[in-house]
Write a structure and sequence with these properties.
173 residues; mainly beta
């Protein structure tokens, strides 16, 4: 079974100037819908640039979790997205090269999540993920907070209102 090892950050202050238009940065518009959610298991359909589609099953939470993806046709993807109801995310993903051949996936959300910007970085091992020192512009590390998973964002929206305290906890209404 495939395992995804990934850390995630929230950029409260947005992306610094020049990051998204630097050399080597690519962008892709992603529409994704969650057609099934059961505890920490999510079944997602993602359409990239209206050109390719994938069906993904993710299980677990935090740094390492199960992820299985398969390509599907655009017609099938469109039909499955119809079953996602309001559990949709629309975003532009920028692939920003980092040192050591890592890629920062900067997601700039649209629609009901407009204004939200996150960064995800995938690693080949948990040790590499733990050793990674994020640039200051990455913001708050929310890897272990399930409220910031894309499935939770699609289902519940941004976990607001939030208040920053000394431990960077979020206090909801």
């Amino acid at each position: 079974m495939a395992t995804e090892i990934e850390r995630k950050w929230v950029l409260d202050d947005g992306v610094p100037p020049g990051v998204l238009d630097a050399a080597g940065v690519t962008a892709s518009r992603l529409r994704q819908g969650y057609v099934a959610l059961d505890g920490d298991v999510a079944v997602r359909v993602r359409v990239a640039d209206e050109a390719t589609a994938r069906l993904t099953v993710k299980a677990g939470s935090g740094l390492a979790r199960t992820e299985v993806e398969v390509p599907i046709g655009l017609v099938d993807a469109g039909q499955l997205l119809g079953h996602a109801g309001g559990r949709m995310i629309d975003k532009t993903r920028y692939a920003v090269p980092l040192p050591d051949r890592l890629i920062a996936e900067v997601d700039v959300y649209a629609g009901t999540l407009a204004g939200l910007v996150t960064v995800e970085v995938e690693f080949t091992s948990a040790d590499d993920a733990d050793a990674f020192v994020a640039p200051a512009w990455f913001g708050r590390d929310v890897t272990d907070d399930p409220a910031w998973s894309n499935a939770a964002l699609a289902l519940h929206g941004r976990p607001d209102p939030w208040v920053r305290d000394s431990a960077w906890h979020y206090l909801g209404a």
